[in-house]
Amino acid sequence: MNDRILGILAEGLGKILLASIKVTIPLTIIGFALAMVIAMFMALVQYAKVPVLKQISRIYIWIFRGTPLLVQLFLAYFGLPKLGIVMDAFPCAVMVFALNEGAYCAETMRSALEAVPEGQMEAGYCVGMNYLQIMWHVVIPQALRTAFPPLSNSVISMLKDTSLAATITVADMFMAAQKIVGRTYEPLWLYSEVALVYLAYSTVLTIIQRYYEKKLSAYNTRSSEPSEVKAQGGN
To answer: What's the pLDDT tens digit per position in 77-91?
Structure first.
């Protein structure tokens, strides 16, 4: 590896990290936060079997899970302007990632809610709680503990998928590398470098995931489900 390559990699690393701080990480955080709001709403209307809304949520999940993310990005950024709806690249990417990830997380949350034993609802009613209190204090917390591992995997997957945002001109890490490649003609080294940066971020998230999974496992071992209901009811 000669001095020229080292200089290119040093320049590339700085620009890639800057793009990650300014674009990739905010895109992941904002997109996933909105996805969880969407997912919780869609999961709850299915769990409660709300008429009409349940059917709408199933159609939404069917569409966004059944079409490629890249196609969704192109439809939103290049297609919607034909209907008079024009968005900047970053908010467009946030919207598409939130809707796409929300569909997957909605199924995760729905299955987690359905995994909570029905006896928890009955126990909640027995201690004087109403439906909303039982859902907020008993069912949803238990469902979130069950859903934590797959949701964590979704965050990691979404972080990597943000590279697709470069296709609609979002200046993320991948686009930063592309620009330097276009000037230096060193795709092997620069794309390897950006891959290592993605790997580093994914590794950090994996370590955090494993740490909290152990914490949740220890908590579940110490606490039995009936005692949780009594404790919540006592509050």
So the answer is: 999 999 999 999 999
